[in-house]
Design goal:
Elements (H helix, E strand, L loop, with lengths): L3 E20 L13 E24 L2 E24 L16 E25 L6 E7 L2 E7 L3
Antiparallel strand pairs: 1-2, 2-3, 3-4, 5-6
Length: 152
Amino acid sequence: MKGLKLKANLAADATFTNNRNFEVKISDQFRKNSYNQLTLKNDKYWAILQEYFLSYDKHFGNHALVLLGGYTSQTFNDLYSATRGRDFASEAPELRYMRYAGSIVALAEAMTEAGATMRFSPCLDASTTLLRPLLAHRYVQGRRFIKICRRS
């Protein structure tokens, strides 16, 4: 159909990190609890963006009809975990693994997800040579906002 345009944008962003830290045992007169420990941290973060826009532009004589609609959604996700092992019998590099720890503690485990969604209801301009402002409704997590959109 002449004058009808569809545009889609998709994007993804991801970060994956793994941290490993071994602290050796230091015995001195200032430390009451001297121990060695291994800390493992794992973080996986990803975000996904989706945008879809549909427009229709029809000109006839001194009149114009413009329709615009769209949908945008973005989600953010984070998966995190941390574990600590203490009291290793040996600090030899080949024995710095959790299976050799005297005690193991799960420090944190978390999964978070957040997102926002916007829907643009059709914007309509049925004017002659005047450029009238158009209204669209935007929804962000259930709240409604008004947006002005203009013909370009």
